[in-house]
What does this fold into?
Amino acid sequence: MESKKENETIDGLAVSALRALVIDETNHAKSGHPGMALDIAPALYVLFSKHLVADPAHPTWINRDRFVLSSGHNSALLYAMLHLTGYGVSLDDLKAFRSINSITPGHPEVGLTPGVDATAGPLGQGIAQAVGMAVAEEAIAARYPEGKNVMSHYTYCLCGDGCLEEGLSQEAISFAGHQKLNKLILMYDQNTSTLDGPTSNTMTEDVKGRFVSAEWAVLEVKDGNDLAAIDRALNEAKKEMNRPTMILIHTIIGFGSLNQGSHKTHGEPLGLEDGEHCKEVYGYHYPEFTVPDSVYAHFKAGFAAKGAKAYEEWNLRYEAFKKSHPKEAKVFADAFARNVTPYLPKMPTFDPSTLEATRVSSGHIVSALPSVMPFTLGGSADVAGSLKTAIAGDPGFSKEHPEGKNVFFGIREFAMASIQNGILLHGGLLTYVGSFLIFTDYMKAAVRMSALEKIPAIYLFSHDSIAIGEDGPTHEPIEQITGFRAMPNLHLYRPCDARETYAAWRMALLSKSTPTILILTRQNLPLLAHSSEQGVEKGAYVIEENPAKQIQLLATGSEVSLCLQIAKILKGKGVEAEVVSMPCLDVFDKQDQTYQNSVLSLPKEKRYSFEMGSGLGWYKYADHVYSVEEFGRSAPGADVLKAMGWTAEDMAKKVLESLH
It folds into this structure.
């Protein structure tokens, strides 16, 4: 029997259905986070039913509004909403919440669940990814004639108190405000609770003042159950022309629970008794996992119909765009399909006397990309001069110049990487970002997210070893490369010269679902006579053959030319050595056994590896591993290498000693 409360409005019934599904999902799974989901359900309902434009029949439509759930632990609510709005998430999928091989995992995963626009869970990353999506929307619209006819949408993000405690959120908020990303709307659920207790234990700042100082518009909803107030706030936010908007929504965590207002509802299912109590409070008298037909009909006639109409209207505009601007439309389509082959920069003819740092070689590619691949966008974390990512004549991406190809990310490594993720999730742009290798410690979690989301992010990391010298141990990486090599679905290239750098860049550009890291030198390196583009494509190859070889010297980056010097010294001592360049170990490991055996053709006890970083991982390839297992020194690079035994003479001596 329906209660009076249920019959008041279809809006109220729909919100109650959302809340009830959250209770059922988490209770059925005996796991999950119902607290925030129950308190913020009205806001998500208003967003989807009255504002967000997307078509569940075409969940990857490129001009849809994006929605990012930064507080990914709130996933049960998102899945319930996707079910009600017709995204192909069934009741059985909701019953499989957090179970093996389901499309309703504990935190949302892009590419797994239709309607999920970003993977989220590590708090704060969703906010930064939403910033990236807003950047992409603005940048793409500015690059094409009449671009706003085919690229014009909003990016919405929902976060909680925990997201705003993470330092990443401030980096992203500051960047977004500076860039005046007015089509970015952040809904902040201030339920004043985290897993361990009330936020008053850890956070007493003026959050509104924080956003105002970062050049955001700030709106406030006093009661998270006031649908009309939430609607008014979203309407006002969409009128902003020069600022992103934060809507602060006051809520009561675990609304309806016997423990509402307590952190006890944050991370554990309510249980059957409390769940039934909640449903009584909501006036929702239906069996478990049951939704009235009127709620389904409401979303179908509202959200789905609105999205289908918008999709059809966009298709008409897109067809007109293709007729009016066929060349640009081809680029537009290729950009979203990541069809980069027609736009690849050509491998130059190198002067054999070339002597340059691989960061400089990379810089030549960065400079050339905009003229051959018009959908590129990249930048660095305030090291453009050192990393060679500056583009001559480019004004830089900004509100005044959204067509700019270079992004000044500032000293925000974590946000930079996470924003790149958001841009790539949005689609339509090919991106790269960069920093010094040592500072990847600030951003590794976002690189991991790139790999998890299976997006082809490109990372340029220079100043790759103790050879940088004067800046000393604080700037000299030791363990960073090893850490990245341990990461699944990530290709790390450490090229030995200009030719290998170009080849590695080509592999990065061609990647469809794997992020790529290029590790680059500060110091000049010679062009090696037998460096090979085809060898880079295989991950490793013999760069200096020796049919009489007694041992093999394996290396990456600057250490390849060092090994060539070592081989000459050893030859003078009667020891024949062959040199193998191994720019990408992961790619080499994926080659067939026949090829691997042709490269590593001697027994492992006759192989020696050389890399100026942690040796962990190299014992897979060689029994003799020469590495750096301590922090560096502060002195000119040549002095540091000499002091730490990284000269050809010192290394040749160590090899000879091992042979006797």
User: Anything to note?
Assistant: The first strand starts at residue 66 and ends at 69. The longest helix spans residues 293-324. The radius of gyration is 28 Å.
